[in-house]
Amino acid sequence: MKFIGIVVFALILSGCASSKPISFSPNKEYSVSVQSSVFDTVRIDNNDTTLFLDGKSIGFIRVEPVPEGASSAADFLNALRSSSESDTVTTKSLSFPAGFSGFAAKNRNYLTGYLFNERNSGSVLIFSFPEDEFDQIAETVSRGI
Questions:
Q1: Is there a contact between 127 and 104 (Cβ–Cβ < 8 Å)?
Q2: 35-42 long-range contacts, Cβ below 8 Å, gap at least 24?
Q3: How confident is the model over 9-36, as pLDDT tens digits?
Q4: For residue 109, which phi and psi values (nearest 5 degrees)?
Q5: pTM of the predicted protein model
Q6: In a domain, 94, yes or no
Q7: Within a domain: residue 10?
């Protein structure tokens, strides 16, 4: 009987531990995957997807058009990176999948990624998550569906 209880307990734990990636594609240019264990609720607004865990916002995925006055997405991101750096915010270049360029800004324990699709640079993908989740999410960036 004790053995059956241990087996049932192990099955329950393994079911709770399962996590699969959920893809979010805010437009045709971008897709980002987040492990289902990271969030339990999603709120979708016009150009913003916010993920929550236990009623607390834990991250967002957003697409913004490149401002009309910017000569290119790369120039816009360079200007944004320069203006973001301060005593409390540090920036760093990131290795995004091929075809994407950008950087991340760190503020407290969150990283916010800013990148553009080099094939269609009319918009910028912005996503922010806790530092310990960010790299795994950044590796999933791809063209949208």
A1: no
A2: 35/133, 35/136, 38/129, 38/133
A3: 444 444 555 689 999 999 989 999 999 9
A4: -105, 20
A5: 0.83
A6: yes
A7: no
